[in-house]
Amino acid sequence: MHIDIIGSGSPLLLMHGWAMHGGVFMPLVERLRHRFQCWIVDLPGHGNSSEDAGADLSHSVERLLAQAPAGTRWLGWSLGGQLALDAALQAPHEVGGVAMIASSPCFVRRADWPHGVDDSVFTGFASELKRDYAATIERFLALEVHGDDAARSELRSLRAMWASRPAPRPEVLNIGLNWLAHRDYRARLSELSVPSLWLAGARDRLVPPEAMRWASEASGGSYAQWPAGHAPFLAHGDAIAAAIVSWAQGEESSES
C-alpha cells in the first residue's frame, strides 16, 4: 500500500472512502500536519497503491495495524471509517482512538435500523460500473457533495482530486461495495474501548447524521455535525481540523 507520511507529532492514520484515494485528505492534512504525523493511505488498488485488495479489506486492516506505530489514532471517512472501527475492535491496544467522518456502523437500512440506505444503492453502483464506469464515478462524486452550500465548486475540486491519481479498477470497487453492504458493527460498539469522535454532515444522503449520533452514544464517543453532505471536510476543513485537535488534546489531558 502507498502511504504518504506528512507532518510531526503524534501519529494519525487517515483512510479514504469508496472509489477515492488519500489525496482527498491533503487540504485537511495541511491543517493537521503541525499537530500530527499524518499517515495518508491509498487502500489497495486505489490511487498509487498497486496491490490487490484480496477477497475483502480485512487484510488491509491487518497490514496497517502491523505498520502503524502503537497508539496511532485512526481517522476514516465513509468506508475508511468502518476500517478504522474494525481495527479498533480487533486490536484496541494498538489503536489510540478513532475519528469517524461521515461513516456508519451499518450503511444499509435494516428492519431494526432506519438510519441506512437501501441495499439497492450498492447493488446499483455495482451494476452501473459494468455499464458505464465514468458516469458511475461522476454520479457518486456528485452525491458526495450534495447538500453543500458550494456544491458546484466542491464537485470541481473533488473531480480534480480523484483524477490526480490512477483510477481503481471496477473489481476493486466491487470489493468495497460488498464490504459496505454486509458489515454491521452496531452490536459491537459497546465493546469499543478506545476514544471515538463522530463527525457528520447534517445533509448527508449516504450516512444520515442520526446514524452517527446513535453510534456516538452507543460507543460513549463525542459527536459534532456541520451543514454539509457526505464530505464535510471539504467545506468545513478548519472546523473539522479543530474538532480533531481538540478531541486528541482532551484525551491526552485525561490520560496525564
Question: Can you tell me about this structure?
Answer:
The protein has 256 residues and is α/β, with parallel strands linked by helices. The protein has a single domain, classed as Rossmann fold. Helices cover 45% and strands 17% of the residues. It contains ten helices and seven strands. Strands 1-3-2-4-5-6-7 form a seven-stranded mixed sheet, sandwiched between helices. The longest helix is centred in the last third of the chain and has 19 residues.
Question: How are the secondary structure elements laid out?
Answer:
Elements: E1 2-7, E2 10-15, H1 26-32, E3 36-42, H2 58-67, E4 72-77, H3 79-90, E5 95-101, H4 120-131, H5 133-145, H6 151-163, H7 170-182, E6 196-201, H8 209-219, E7 222-226, H9 232-235, H10 237-255
Parallel strand pairs: 2-3, 2-4, 4-5, 5-6, 6-7
Antiparallel strand pairs: 1-3
Tell me the major beta sheet. 7 strands, mixed
The number of distinct helices, counting runs of at least 4 residues, comes to 10
Instruction: Give, in order, the helices and strands.
Output: EEHEHEHEHHHHEHEHH
State the CATH architecture: 3-Layer(aba) Sandwich
Q: Which outline best applies? A: globular
Q: Report the oligomer.
A: single chain
- Kindly report the average pLDDT value: 94
